[in-house]
Amino acid sequence: MPGSFFKFTERNTNFKTEVLSGSATFLTMAYIIFVNPGILSAAGVPFEGAVTATAIGAALMCLAMGLIANRPLALASGMGINAVLAFSVIGFHQANVPWQVGMSVIFIEGLLILLLVVTGFREAVMNAIPLNLKRAIGVGIGLFITLIGLNEGGIIRPAPITLVALGDFSKAYVWVALAGFFSTAFFMALKVKGDILWGILVSTAAAFLLGVTALPHSFVAMPRFDTFFAPFQTVNGSLALTQALAPGLLFAIFALMLTDFFDTMGTVVAVGEQAGFVNKDGTVQDIKKILVVDSAAAAVGGLFGASSITTYVESAAGVAEGGRTGLSAVVTGLFFALCAFFAPVIQMVGGGHRLPNAEQYTLLVKGGFTAPPDVIPPGVGDFFVYPITAGALIIVGSLMMKTVREIDWDSFDEALPAFLTMIGIPLTYNISYGIGFGFISFVVVKLAKRKFSQIHPLMYLVSAAFLASFILGAK
Description:
By secondary structure, the chain is mainly alpha-helical. It is 63% helix and 5% strand.
């Protein structure tokens, strides 16, 4: 009986409530089905394969969380780290490394994190990090996601002196992004369930009206498994997994491991407090089971070609509907599994809009590229914007800003590290770099003020690791 397995009575819930909870969670995070393939395809990952990997990866790990940890926590490819993988590790259309090698980096770092969970180290570090830094990490990731959304929607553009400037509002795709943003804000103000998903549907309609997208030839298709087992695919004559161990990518493995290591903390604590499985001292009940599933999900994401899979803060939507058990996560996972059969529709919504060559060249020149007008710069013909889902990214980023008010801004030695963390993440376009800025500055400032007792021994270790990564990764 599901009631006894999921402990309905002990947690004061029932089957109907859990099903509604899982449905609400899916509606609030379904945007990832459209957004993740779009981001990954910008780095050369096959779009249809990325859809299948995103859907099945999320489904599998939601089922694992529900059946193993029995908590209403849903998982899917993580926003933020997918952008880091696509734009920093792999690069636009495999400018740096083949996408299979990039997925191998995710696979390796996921296995390393799982090892740290099994040994108890990840849990120990979670408990050692100061609360203000935990809050700042979430805020910084929110700013990072917002920056990605503004850029992908064409609302901002590169500029040589000011770094960024206002986008060209004469372009149709910019208005598609704005339609998605304002409609989502409208639905959120009215507290409509699945507000982000409804906003994506509105921006899709705007894209049709403005000629930015067109109907697919079919609406249903069999799943494509092109990206599955990417680390074990042969690329350029050798196994992708072995290429990921090259000296130049070891830093990427370490940096992404740090990012994955810390990304889950704020989510589990925030959702756990709402669901009632966080103790008064801040520790999380069943934390080891939760972290085992979350860590294994990162490796599964790399194995399937979906980028790192992680626990989603949108799980709070299901908790708000009364979800208290793993059945909520199981229901969310079943919905994700169905999405694997709708790749054509998903590509219509999440696929990129290719910019004309002339417009791409103009953007490059404004961004600081210099060349004679008759010289076609590298990459022209490969530049895309993703306006339909851009508004969703901006909104998701704004939702992650809530904890900024809980940071102790009156204490300099707490405020400065938090501030450096928040601005470091978006301005370096890398989550782990921002976290490193915060950790190192926290230790330095606390030492300067002789507050030795406030520095957990593990903070020295992690800060030293970040410092080493910055030095070794310097070019």
